[in-house]
Amino acid sequence: MKLQLMTDSGADLTKALQEKWDVNIISLFVLFGSEQFKSESLTTHDFLARITNTKTFPSSSAPSPQDYYDAFVATPADTPIVLVSVSSGVSASYNHALMGKTMLLEKEPNRIIHIIDSKAASSGMMLLLELAHELKEKDTPLEKIVETLNNRVPYLRTIFVLETLDNLIRGGRLDKVKGTVAKTLNVKLILHASHEGKIEVLEKVRGTKKATRRFVETIGEYIQDTKDKTFGLTHGNDPSRCEQFLSLIKERYQFKKIITAETGPVISAHAGQGAIVMSFFSDKAR
């Protein structure tokens, strides 16, 4: 069917997945002081190296409404658009996309644009985009695709474990004193996207081995049978750590499909080197 899928760079799609699923990417931005870069223009390796070698900690910003308008208007007028946005709980991207849509509809009221708030990021957005692509390939009616995606969002679990708390502390998302105490006590944070799509602490675990074990165990607490499920996993510039987690997950669960990728600069700015982000559809809603 005729349909254009879109997302933003919070989805961390590889070039191969972008092409396979025919997804247009609208780039978020990272800023080092007065310098601004499209997140798509930086590799995660170079971005993290720059953080290490500078006193200026980066911030991120959403695409502007005009950026979304430009992406929408560049799509043929007779082609419906479905855009999967990074969570409105952590970014202005979703609201800016709605504004861009309104701008276009004022000029071209017959356009069809649907914007999905993923309430997630990274691997969670990947799973929604894969689902959208599968439905598109089956010639599913547009209304059914949109309904299915919106209905699946509450069941989408995105959970991540950090190798370091430094980025959260430097970015102001974790109190410096609390962060220093956690580091001193070797506390690892297992975080998740809440029902509102905000980042919250799921568990505090002392020690890397225990944190790894609890991270993997968590899957079984949300899914009884994984055989028909797709699993997403992204990593912060650390493929060997990704493989370690994948090995443990494959030993314990039998997912139908596993999709992996590297976190991009926007997600890496907060999660840091070595972060592992997993997503799956759970049996019960968040």
From TrEMBL:
GO molecular function: lipid binding
Domain of life: Bacteria
Extent of the signal sequence: none
Pfam families per UniProt: DegV
PROSITE patterns: DEGV
Gene3D superfamilies with a match to the protein in the record: 3.30.1180.10, 3.40.50.10170
Keyword Ribonucleoprotein attributed: no
Swiss-Prot/TrEMBL keywords: Lipid-binding
Official protein name in the record: DegV family protein with EDD domain
Origin species: Streptohalobacillus salinus
Lineage, uppermost ranks: Bacteria, Bacillati, Bacillota, Bacilli, Bacillales
